[in-house]
């Protein structure tokens, strides 16, 4: 109890200071942009209706219940749904005041944290038709010879990761990621059917891919899916943002997630100092502030009604990044899914450290799926 109180007090002090730092950095970057590039550049901390990119303009329409964003790039005109977290990320003091009012009459649920910087989004393998959630050096060597002979395995680096492009004018939406997978994997390798295995935030993309190509899907395997069903009356994206980044100094992963999600200008500064690619942290922030939380409910409903293949969910019982309750909640939305809770494993050791066992489990899933097809 004493440790929790100390964490709360220190967190309040630290994040109030960060609020002020981010506020002043906002104007510092505006001035720097004007002096260096001779133009003011709107940022996401405001509700600006126009944001300038390096290759065009982003026009935001606020009419109706959901915002729409029309992006004019050098090659195409796009209409995107955007999350209310993109332009609505209140400072800590404001959020605390609202939180006290919001939860004054409701029991407080325990807070779990997610470190978005260590989540591997669909870093895996598409084999003849398989998508694996772990790097080849950890999982691929553990597959049987028959599996390696029977299937092709292709590593997927999503936009902004690894050797994939990091386009400055990209909004890194789910649609853009799906198009990238289709153009760089499904189409050139003429994939006619596939099994999907996805880890953590990659599960959202995997669900979207399953909904878009249900007839091609042979099986769907999800590891530690980040599903946080929002209470009635709360915006899904805002609720998920608060669960992922609770603005606490401890544990360290919570602090890192909070900086990346809530403080655009501090993140930009960190990128300038620490990263060769100054847009990487900005990309991670964009990724977490897209409208994926709102779309996830729709994906689950579509999977429940349209996807006929085997669906398996794995979750480490000791996962403190994404609590096992997320998988139980997801299974309640997809009754046909089989949930396997692995004892004494967490967010990473659900695969790392048990590669051989997990490889055998995947091969069994694929074998059973082939028998049903």
Automatic annotation (TrEMBL):
TM region(s), chain numbering: 12-32
Q: Domain of life, per the record?
A: Eukaryota
Q: Which parts of the sequence belong to the AB hydrolase-1 domain? A: 141-229
Entry keywords, A to Z = Membrane, Transmembrane, Transmembrane helix
Name any one GO molecular function.
hydrolase activity
Cite the InterPro entries for this sequence: AB_hydrolase_1, AB_hydrolase_fold
This protein is called: AB hydrolase-1 domain-containing protein
